[in-house]
C-alpha cells in the first residue's frame, strides 16, 4: 500500500523503501490506519459499493497492515491478503486475528495463491509502481471467477515530479481485458483522506465477463 504523502508503495519490488522499518508507523496516516471513525466509515461505504453485494472471496494485494482487509471482512467477505513486507503481514494477521482471513508474504504482481480464484481483487496504490502494469492486470483478471471484479484505487501524486497512473491510462490498460469499467473520482471526498487533497485520486471498478 502507498504512503499518500509521497506516492510510494510497499508492493514496488524495485523501491528502496524499507517497509518493514515503516510498518510500525504505517497506520498513523489517516487513510492507512482508518483510526478516525469518519474516515473509516467513508472507506467502508466506498468498499461496500465496489465489492460484490453478497459474501465472497476477496484478494487484497499490497494489503499493508490490513485495514481494507478488515473492512471487507466486516462486510462478510473471506479475505486473502498479500504484501511484500513480512512486518506488514504480521500486523495484518494481528488486526484480523480470529476472522476468516489469510495473509501471505509475496509479490502483488504475482501473488502466491496457486489455483485459488476470487470474486474480487482489491488493489490500492500498488499498480502504478509495478514495472509492467498491463501484465499485472491481465494476471489479476485471470484470478477472478466469471463475473468477478477488479477494484483498483490509484492516483497521481506530487507537483514538481508527479508519480502515479492517470485514470485514462488505467482504463486503456483494461480495454484488452473486456467487461464493464467505471471510474469513480475520489479527490473531492476529504473524509477518505483525513483532509482536503488537490491531486488526482480515483477508483476503477472493472467487472469481467
Set out the fold topology.
Elements: E1 2-3, E2 8-9, H1 19-22, H2 30-33, H3 37-50, E3 57-61, H4 67-74, E4 78-83, H5 86-95, E5 101-105, E6 118-124, H6 133-142, E7 144-157, E8 163-164, H7 167-174, E9 180-185, H8 190-193, E10 200-207
Parallel strand pairs: 3-4, 3-6, 4-5, 6-7
Antiparallel strand pairs: 1-2, 7-8, 7-10, 9-10
Pfam families: Methyltransf_11 (PF08241)
Protein name: Class I SAM-dependent methyltransferase
Domain Methyltransferase type: 59-152
Question: Can you characterise this structure?
Answer:
The chain has 209 residues and is α/β, with parallel strands linked by helices. Helix content is 30%, strand content 27%. The protein has eight helices and ten strands. The protein has helices spanning 19-22, 30-33, 37-50, 67-74, 86-95, 133-142, 167-174, 190-193; strands at residues 2-3, 8-9, 57-61, 78-83, 101-105, 118-124, 144-157, 163-164, 180-185, 200-207. The protein is globular, with a radius of gyration of 15 Å. It starts with a strand and ends with a strand. The model is unreliable at 1-14 (pLDDT under 50). Pfam families: Methyltransf_11. Residues 59-152 form the Methyltransferase type domain. InterPro entries: Methyltransf_11, SAM-dependent_MTases_sf. Keywords: Methyltransferase, S-adenosyl-L-methionine, Transferase.
Amino acid at each position: 500500500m502507498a504512503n499518500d504523502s509521497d506516492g510510494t508503495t510497499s508492493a514496488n519490488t524495485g523501491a528502496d523503501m524499507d517497509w518493514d522499518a515503516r510498518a510500525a508507523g504505517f497506520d498513523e496516516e489517516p487513510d492507512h490506519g482508518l483510526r478516525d471513525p469518519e474516515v473509516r466509515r467513508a472507506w467502508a461505504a466506498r468498499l461496500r459499493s465496489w465489492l460484490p453485494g453478497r459474501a465472497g472471496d476477496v484478494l487484497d494485494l499490497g494489503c499493508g497492515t490490513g485495514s481494507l482487509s478488515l473492512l471487507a471482512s466486516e462486510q462478510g467477505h473471506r479475505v486473502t491478503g498479500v504484501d511484500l513486507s513480512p512486518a506488514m503481514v504480521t500486523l495484518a494477521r494481528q488486526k484480523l486475528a480470529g476472522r476468516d482471513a489469510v495473509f501471505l508474504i509475496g509479490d502483488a504482481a504475482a501473488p502466491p495463491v496457486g489455483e485459488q480464484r476470487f470474486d474480487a481483487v482489491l488493489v490500492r496504490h500498488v499498480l502504478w509502481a509495478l514495472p509492467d502494469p498491463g501484465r499485472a492486470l491481465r494476471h489479476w483478471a485471470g484470478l477472478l471467477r466469471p463475473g468477478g471484479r477488479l477494484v483498483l484505487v490509484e492516483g497521481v501524486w506530487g507537483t514538481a515530479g508527479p508519480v502515479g497512473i492517470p485514470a485514462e491510462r488505467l482504463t486503456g490498460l483494461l480495454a484488452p481485458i473486456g467487461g464493464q469499467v467505471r471510474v469513480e473520482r475520489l479527490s473531492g471526498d476529504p473524509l477518505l483522506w483525513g483532509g482536503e487533497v488537490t491531486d488526482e485520486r480515483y477508483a476503477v471498478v472493472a467487472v469481467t465477463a
